[in-house]
Design a protein that fits this description.
Number of helices: 8
Strand content: 15-25%
CATH architecture: Alpha-Beta Complex
Number of strands: 7
CATH class: Alpha Beta
Shape: globular
């Protein structure tokens, strides 16, 4: 049985950022460095991504024939224990007058081989479903490098993967310790590689502990 559905609703103070789902799927240690040790560093990829999100949010809301677009929409799920902002949500007017939400996430690069982007978008859909008491079958991810939308169907498998990632995130934060570093190809693109230190003895310590040790 789904453990998220078993427990009571998360309290306001327990809500974690939706963006952290991508961090934990990319690397548990990276996620801990950011959300437990509060370490962050920019590289070209993170700066470009941040600027793209700002550009989308700054565009403001918009109305087109049959569609209302809300940008930078605050969303949350007390069932999943998540909170954040949707880059854009299109509300499509249906024949019966109802508004069907269609969440859109903006990414600077191109589609990835893993599901981390899909999970982040699905989490936004699950938040909207809970808030609006409605079913959202699909959404899209716009990739800046390809200038195309990738349509994402919120299948049962993707929903379960998203809920699993949320559970994993809450378990990591509850434990409150940073996992040991494991060197992978992903490390080359990580903006925190200099803090993570996967090639050194510091890899089995938290970044803060390692810095304190070498500063003695």
């Amino acid at each position: 049985m789904n453990t998220i559905k078993q427990r009571n609703l998360f309290q306001e103070s327990e809500l974690l950022p939706i963006s952290a789902l991508q961090h934990i799927q990319f690397c548990e240690r990276q996620c801990a460095l950011i959300h437990i040790e509060r370490i962050w560093a920019e590289n070209r990829l993170t700066v470009e991504g941040h600027l793209l999100h700002e550009k989308v949010h700054d565009a403001g809301d918009e109305t087109r024939p049959g569609i209302t677009i809300a940008r930078g929409l605050s969303i949350r799920s007390c069932k999943l224990g998540l909170i954040g902002k949707a880059d854009a949500v299109e509300f499509h007017k249906q024949a019966n007058g109802a508004q069907q939400p269609y969440p859109i996430e903006y990414k600077r690069g191109k589609p990835k081989i893993d599901d981390c982007d899909l999970v982040q978008l699905c989490a936004q859909a699950l938040c909207l479903e809970e808030m609006l008491n409605i079913t959202i079958p699909q959404g899209a991810i716009y990739y800046g490098k390809t200038h195309r939308r990738l349509e994402v169907v919120f299948s049962e498998a993707l929903r379960q993967e998203t809920e699993s990632a949320a559970r994993q995130l809450h378990a990591l934060m509850k434990k409150g310790t940073t996992p040991t570093a494991v060197k992978t190809l992903k490390c080359e693109k990580c903006s925190l590689v200099e803090y993570c230190l996967p090639d050194t003895a510091g890899g089995n310590k938290s970044a803060i502990e390692y810095v304190k040790e070498i500063s003695k």
